[in-house]
Amino acid sequence: MSKNKKIRHYNNDEICEAILLLALSAKAYEMLRRISILPLPHRVTLARKVKHFDCAPGLQPEFFEFIKLKLSISEDWERQCILMFDEMHISESYEFCKRLKTMYGANKKVQVVLLR
């Protein structure tokens, strides 16, 4: 690493926004990062920041509390969102999650919830 480069420290809001941008379009994220339009963290930095985030299958009450808090401090126009539910067909096999150290049974379908 050259001595001329400054190390940029990103706060949690910047990390969350970067993750959202990356989720929308990985190609656009890499282009914005490469041509320095926005000061965006490297993908490795994002992965390191969320590696301890455990999200087991099932209902996530913490998520609803987070949304409730976020909406309580948001402007009216920011509160407009869409909550979508969908069901996906998945391959029926047993899976072991290394991070959660849990075995998950063979399921045919999964419920997906998207807040946009």
What would you say this structure looks like, in words?
There is one protein chain. The protein is 36% helix and 17% strand. By secondary structure, it is of the alpha+beta class. It is globular. Helix 1 packs across helix 2. The chain is built from four helices and four strands. Among the domains are: 9-53; 81-116, no CATH class. The strands form two sheets. Strands 1-4 form a two-stranded antiparallel sheet. It has a two-stranded antiparallel sheet with strand order 2-3. The model has no long low-confidence stretch (mean pLDDT 83).
Number of strand segments: 4
Number of helices: 4
Structural class: alpha+beta
Uncertain spans: none
* Shape annotation: globular
Short description:
The chain has 116 residues and is of the alpha+beta class. Among the domains are: 9-53; 81-116, no CATH class.
Question: Descriptors for this entry?
Answer:
116 residues, alpha+beta, two-stranded antiparallel ribbon, 36% helix
Task: Give the helices and strands, then pairings.
Layout: H1 12-24, H2 26-34, H3 43-50, H4 61-72, E1 83-89, E2 95-97, E3 102-104, E4 109-115
Antiparallel strand pairs: 1-4, 2-3
Helix pairs in contact: 1-2
